[in-house]
Design goal:
The protein is built from 16 helices and 24 strands. The chain is α/β, with parallel strands linked by helices. The strands form three sheets. Strands 17-18-16-13-15-14-23-24-22-19-21-20 form a twelve-stranded antiparallel sheet. An eight-stranded mixed sheet has the order 3-6-2-1-9-11-12-10, with helices on both faces. The chain has a four-stranded mixed sheet with strand order 5-4-7-8. Helix 7 packs antiparallel against helix 8, helix 9 runs antiparallel to helix 10 and helix 9 packs antiparallel against helix 15. It binds adenosine-5'-diphosphate, aspartic acid (ASP) and magnesium ion.
């Protein structure tokens, strides 16, 4: 009948009873006539326990030894699950990542999967055995052979990668909630369960903090066309189906997680930019501006906002050119009410974007884009990042040359200019997410020369530090500021790298704020729907939450706020988009 990959997270294998429950579910699937490959995580919080153990010995554990240690967690659970299957009379064998041949890069703790050898798996399956594979681990073939791990949450990635390599009918991710919800049901109990979600939305939500499915797993599913279903093990709810379009890379499983980060270059040549400079830094400012624009049904494309020097904000946004006169009139009027010092307009801009699954998370893609622009002497006016799109606003006259240079730099065939049509009839906002793993770094007093953003980003890429939001001040003059967010665990390394870069490049100072979180709304239906950002800003303003940074892409709006407001921010934004479900209380998470 075909093969199914079933992945069980830590909670599902946390004790004897739950392991028995897993075994019964697998046995049911086998009895229905399917071949089954099971992927399991370490029991309960075992990986955390092992991490703490390492930290108790040394504050800086050797990365190789950490992988040797952490990979033991999954090794325990595969053996126990195989034994539980034997108890039910099934033939089953457990295999570690090394035994399967899950070949990864050699960088410990964060290795990406290169390919999976299916020979041994097939042999066992052909003998009628269930194969129980350890999630989260692999082997690097650089001599000598080394055990590697994929990064926290990596068992999802193992499962989807195995499903791709084996051509499975589907990959079922069993977890401690009933599926993917409109937001984390542990923080917002009224969250509703989504019967389906597009892979773009899932990718954004996952990379913006929705832990339920690891973004790298979504990336593989989208690239190789793996049908993924997220469900709970403790009841027979149908769960959430992740839906996707035509797979990009099916057939070629070589370099699985590192193949072709960029799909295409898109140009939108008809944009105009409006910037409000030195807007006071207080709650409700963004709401006033964007509500006034939404009232006139003006569709906003990119929005960026960040505090810059003198503790005031710059807010910049883009609209289609036809909206410029009415948007400019509103910006002047509201800007005056807010006490901003200046409103600037630019009718001659284009938005140029790199599109591809995981463009943001691949170290070096942003740096290479900025370096290509710097080489041509092009000034970047705005930057917007999302998991699938990296966009720069530049002068329109540069658009054709930049597109050609980027296609060459990323080895892409030339493509047309027309961005794909927005999907029809989707709910504008599908879900909201909270990312607590954020820190905000600002580089102030950057000499105003083209290529400075590229140089700073290049240094971060060389240090292996992924950058999320990147916001430049909009003030013309002698100095610029750039504010960035990075994962909190990397904040201190990012600060060290930027301090050195700042000294070399003549920037004034680097400041770090570690107590921030990011709340985001995601939905493919926001393309072409005015008022989404305004609604989110209004929700935050009414809760008296100050927005420190704003960044948007076509399918998400993200705001950085003080850590203390994280939970409230998530709740009010979730409620503002009317995502609650009274029925969801029936599907309480498994604690
Ligand atoms: P597992 O151990 O099964 O891999 P995880 O802890 O990694 O499970 O992921 C499941 C958790 O993800 C849930 O318990 C929930 O708190 C969290 N979560 C965050 N956002 C969402 C969301 N939008 N939908 C469902 N769960 C979410
Ligand atoms: N056990 C690993 C972790 O806790 C991998 C996983 O559960 O996905 O991160
Ligand atoms: Mg997980």
């Amino acid at each position: 009948m075909g093969l199914i990959v079933q992945k069980f997270g830590g909670t599902s294998v946390s004790d004897r009873e739950r392991i028995g429950q897993v075994a019964r579910r697998v046995a049911d699937t086998v009895r229905q006539g399917y071949e089954v490959v099971v992927v399991v995580s370490a029991m309960g919080h075992e990986t955390d326990r092992l991490m703490d153990l390492a930290q108790s010995i040394t504050a800086h554990p050797n990365q190789r030894e950490l992988d040797v240690l952490l990979s033991t967690g999954e090794q325990v659970s595969i053996a126990l699950v195989a034994m539980a299957l034997h108890e039910l009379g099934l033939k089953a064998v457990s295999l570690t990542g090394v035994q399967v041949g899950i070949v990864t890069e050699s960088n410990h703790n964060q290795a990406r999967i290169l390919n999976i050898s299916t020979q041994r798996l097939r042999q066992h399956l052909d003998q009628g055995e269930v194969v129980v594979v350890a999630g989260f681990q692999g082997v690097s073939l650089h001599h000598p052979l080394e055990v590697t791990t994929l990064g926290r949450g990596g068992s999802d990635t193992t499962a989807v990668a195995l499903a791709a390599a084996l051509g499975a009918l589907k990959c079922e991710i069993y977890t401690d909630v009933a599926g993917v919800y409109t937001t984390d049901p542990r923080i917002v109990p009224s969250a509703s369960l989504l019967p389906e979600i597009t892979s773009e939305e899932m990718l954004e939500l996952a990379s913006l903090g929705a832990q339920v499915l690891h973004p790298r797993a979504v990336e593989i599913a989208k690239n190789y066309g793996v049908a993924v279903i997220v469900r709970c093990n403790w009841a027979n709810f149908p769960g959430t189906r992740v839906i996707f379009g035509t797979p990009r890379l099916s057939g070629t499983l070589k370099d699985m997680e590192i193949a072709r980060p960029v799909d295409r270059v898109e140009v939108d040549p008809c944009q105009a930019k409006i910037a409000l400079l030195r807007v006071p830094d207080r709650p409700g400012v963004a709401q006033k501006l964007f509500q006034a624009l939404a009232d006139e049904r003006i569709d906003i494309d990119l929005i960026i906002q960040s505090i810059h020097s003198e503790a005031s904000n710059d807010i910049a946004f883009t609209v289609q050119q036809g909206f410029l006169p009415s948007a400019a009139e509103i910006a002047h009027r509201v800007g005056q009410q807010l006490g901003c010092s200046e409103v600037t307009l630019d009718a001659d801009i284009a938005k140029i974007s790199l599109v591809g699954v995981g463009v943001r998370s691949r170290a070096g893609v942003a740096a290479q884009m900025f370096a290509t622009l710097a080489r041509l002497g092009v000034n970047i006016q705005m930057i917007s990042t999302s998991e699938i799109k990296l966009s720069c606003v530049i002068g329109r006259s540069w658009a054709a040359a930049v597109k050609a240079a980027l296609e060459e730099a990323f080895g892409l065939p030339p493509s047309g200019d027309v961005p794909p049509a927005p999907p029809l009839s989707l709910k504008a906002v599908r879900g909201v997410a909270l990312d607590r793993d954020q820190a905000r770094i600002a580089v102030q007093g950057i000499p105003d020369r083209p290529g400075m953003a590229a140089k700073l980003l290049e240094r971060l890429a060389q240090g292996g530090i992924p950058v999320d939001m990147i916001i430049q001040s909009q003030r013309a003059g002698t100095e610029q500021d750039i504010a960035l967010t990075v994962p909190r665990s990397q904040a201190v390394s990012a600060q060290t790298v930027l301090n050195t870069a700042a000294r070399d490049l003549g920037c004034r100072e680097v400041t770090l704020a570690e107590h921030v979180v990011k709340v985001s709304a995601v939905g493919e239906g926001m393309i072409g729907t005015p008022g989404i950002a305004a609604c989110m800003f209004a929700a935050l303003a009414y809760a008296d939450i100050n927005i420190q940074m704003i960044s948007t892409s076509d399918i998400k709006v993200s705001c950085v706020v003080n850590e203390a407001h994280g939970g409230t921010a998530l709740q009010v934004v979730h409620a503002a988009f009317d995502l609650q479900s009274p029925a969801s209380a029936l599907l309480q998470p498994l604690l």
